[in-house]
Amino acid sequence: MIQKVRKKGLAGAVAALVVIGGAVAAYSLSTGQSGPEIAVDDAAAALAAAGEFEALRAAEDAAPDESNGMIFWSEGSEAREVQFGDVKATIEPVAVGGSTSARLTLTDGQGRTFQVQDEGNLAIEAVSLDRAVAAKQIFVRYDSGGSMCCLTEFLLTPTATGWKRMNLSGAWDPSVSEIIDIDGDGRAEITRVDPMVQYGFSDMNEGVFMPRIEIIENGRIEDRTTNAAYRDFYVGLYGDYRQSCADNKTWQACAAYAAVASLIGKLDEAMPLVLQAEGKGSARLPFACRGGKACVDDNKKVRAFGNYRDALDFVLKSGGYKA
Fold it and tell me: Distance between CA atoms of 84 and 65, rounded to whole angstroms?
């Protein structure tokens, strides 16, 4: 008898674990390799003899993929279904003009649906983000390409009356969200690039990313970058960011190093190397802008900076890296 079958998609590979009468056969459909306990041919023969092999194959072909990771759909792909617990996600290509959009339909265990359609590639994942919500939420990203462009991200939460949408980034937000449980507490954090450390000192296509850490609680995004609970995360970045500053000597790479150093109490140690940075390549300086924030928008600037040190000091203070 078949006791358990697991189907998991990972970069196009499908692995099946078949347990027959206590013996185990692990078989990768992408590589054709089997485990040592029982030969795949023997397992297949046993199943076929029992009249169950074709039933198993048909059931797996008909069932949605079960996923514990992020699912990606790109333009040109076929329709597919993915199961996240009791939530079924259906992705369908829809022709719009000369391109293809992705229509996403979520159906929960009670048959309630949520549908959205947008241009570009689609990524979805079941996550535990909101600390006040016991159920899994569905993270959705539409990305039609381009730097600092064409990105839409939102979080869908099941409620007693249906699905609730929470927008995480707008169409011109330059930072893709990475969902990861940094502190191992079972609830994921969001890391996103600080746009002023990244883009304030350089062209948007060069430099070292400076991640900020956010959490969601009760439907609100809270920045926790400076929280001591995440110090070890930045300690882990320190050596590589120092090396990047030393190797590149660009304003942007060294600004990222200064931000990391400041978060772990090593800014004074870092500054001699940071100040060796040169304004080369696509270098630029950010402005001090309305609301006490840094920006690169002439229409919002309050004052310009005459040198790298002053501009960096303002970015570090306005970003909360430095008191």
Answer: 9
3-state secondary structure 89-149: EEEEEEEECCEEEEEEEEECCCCCEEEEEEECEEEEEEECCECCCCCCEEEEEEECCCCCC
Whether 15 and 27 have beta carbons less than 8 Å apart is answered as yes
**pLDDT number for residue 51:** 44
For Cα atoms 112, 118, 124, give the angle at the middle one, nearest 5 degrees.
60
Give the C-alpha separation, 68 to 308, whole Å: 45
pLDDT at 204: 63
pLDDT of residue 209: 87
Neighbours of 71 (CB within 10 A): 17
Label residue 148 by pLDDT band (50, 70, 90).
low
Cα distance between residue 299 and residue 52, in whole Å: 70
How far apart are alpha carbons 256 and 25 in whole angstroms? 49
- Reduced to 3 states (helix: H, G, I; strand: E, B; else coil), residue 34 is strand
pLDDT per residue as tens digits for the range 93-108: 998 887 888 999 999 8
Identify which of 273, 274, 275, 308 has the alpha carbon closest to the alpha carbon of residue 200.
308
